[in-house]
Write a structure and sequence with these properties.
Layout lengths: L1 E2 L2 E13 L18 E5 L5 E5 L10 E13 L5 E6 L4 E10 L27 E11 L18 H7 L2 H10 L30 E8 L5 E13 L6 H16 L4 E8 L2 E13 L52 H61 L8 E3 L2 E3 L9 H7 L9
Antiparallel strand pairs: 1-2, 2-5, 3-4, 5-6, 5-7, 7-8, 8-9, 9-10, 10-12, 11-12, 13-14
Length: 433
């Protein structure tokens, strides 16, 4: 919505995909999902009718992921601008689409969040042949809903109340109230008062009508009702600007309505809602419903990449994500990798063991060589002394001398004492008596 210097954008994107647990669903006569009842399979294998608000349900028709965002621009003289969103997909949220038994009029007991009049279906001469109303259920995964890391729209505690576990629990209680009219404000007990405590936000509610005209052509009409709660802190500039923004947009009557203030955080002036009440039979100038991806907005959550829904009835797994044969598990590469690691481990252990044995043998061999070396040294010392003792005794030995490969007789004079040689040659040494 754009009014001069004031611009306001609020949106939410919802992605619906089949719930794989749908096969565990059942139905019982007299167990009306429209009246917040659900059939569950008991431990004995028989169906049991339970209350949606009081029990955890292990099946649903669809799993939903939601992305919220808002932007407010306040021009002169304030010049305030703010853009916030959840920073990621919120989910999974589990929804059962209840088939309504009353298709004769364009109102139901779905307790929508719409505060405005609806257009009669008789104006387009169409007959509603089937009507489905959303009913949220608490699943085993509901307690694990977490705020996205990059969320700037809400704090952790606010997220839990607006889109987390507490929001799911309150929606299962407030989505059906036979004492509340269709155009009644579900938050009326908290409007400008805290006598009844804080407002309890509800998740978006849907209704799908399958219509057939006189030519037997079938169309689908969608009705969406959602009061998107925002809660600025007391020290936030939007806390004081909200009343003025509310007056200007509501006075323009462009179909984008702001309701409040509601009690939140024990403050009767803190909570305001953007009323996203839309019916394809009666489109609004400032409200648009698009089926498909919108440029600039998130399109598909990561969890939906595993599925490719066709004809809105079955789940098809993409062949490039999982094997075609659902009864086999492809572990070939992992198996061969395990075998290779196992063989290398055994080889390493064996190598270490053999290396240890060889080190022991080398140590033993080194010590024995040292002992032999000591005994050889002692023997060589005794052998060196022996020839001189024999020579001193006057003994002679016949020896051969090998020189440059020739064998020669030893020089006898070499073994004869020097004094004896002098006596034999009648030579006297000077100075010897």
């Amino acid at each position: 919505a754009d009014i001069g210097s004031y611009e306001l954008l609020a949106y939410f994107v919802i992605h619906l995909m089949p719930d794989p647990m749908r096969g565990y669903g059942c139905s019982l006569v007299g167990c009306s999902e429209e009246e917040n009842q659900v059939c569950e399979i008991g431990q004995d294998g028989n169906g049991v009718c339970t209350n949606i608000a009081d029990n955890v349900v292990d099946w649903s028709d669809v799993t939903a992921f939601i992305y919220f965002g808002a932007r407010i621009d306040v021009g002169f003289p304030f010049n305030k601008h703010r853009a916030e969103d959840t920073g990621g997909w919120v989910g999974p949220l589990n929804i059962i689409f209840s088939k309504s038994d009353d298709n004769t009029k364009n109102n139901d007991n779905s307790n929508s969040n719409n505060n405005h009049e609806e257009k009669d279906i008789s104006d387009n001469n169409a007959v509603v042949v089937d009507r489905y109303i959303s009913r949220y259920v608490k699943s085993p995964l509901t307690p694990f809903l977490r705020m996205p890391k990059n969320c700037t729209l809400l704090g952790a505690d606010d997220f839990d109340k607006v889109a987390g576990t507490t929001a799911v629990e309150e929606t299962t209680k407030g989505q059906y109230d036979p004492n509340r009219g269709e155009n009644d404000d579900p938050y009326a007990d908290h409007l400008q008062t805290c006598d009844n405590g804080d407002v309890k936000p509800l998740l978006p509610l849907f209704q799908f009508d399958f219509e057939e005209d006189e030519s037997k052509n079938e169309t689908v009409q969608v009705k969406l009702n959602y009061k998107f709660l925002t809660m600025p802190n007391h020290d936030d500039y939007m806390y004081n600007l909200y009343p003025m923004v509310q007056r200007k947009f509501n006075a323009a009557n462009l179909g984008f309505h702001i309701s409040g203030p509601y009690c939140y955080g024990n403050d009767p002036k803190r909570g305001y809602t953007f009323d996203m009440n839309f019916d394809t039979r009666d489109p609004k100038a400032m409200l648009k419903l698009s089926h498909g991806c919108v440029e600039g907005l998130p399109c598909t959550p990561p969890a939906a990449d595993l599925y490719n829904a066709q004809d809105g009835s079955s789940i098809h797994v993409k062949p490039n994500v999982l094997p075609d044969n659902s009864t086999t598990v492809g572990i070939g590469k992992a198996f061969f990798l395990f075998i290779a690691i196992f063989v290398l481990t055994i080889t390493l252990i064996r190598t270490c063991f053999v290396n240890h044995k060889l080190r022991g043998k080398l140590a033993d061999s080194s010590s024995s060589n040292d002992e032999e070396g000591n005994s050889d040294d002692e023997q060589m010392d005794s052998e060196v002394d022996t020839p001189y003792e024999q020579l001193n005794d006057g003994g002679k030995e016949d020896t051969m001398v090998i020189n440059d490969g020739e064998v020669t007789e030893p020089d006898v004079s070499a073994t004869t004492p020097l004094i004896e040689r002098d006596d034999d040659n009648d030579a006297t040494s000077p100075g010897v008596v």
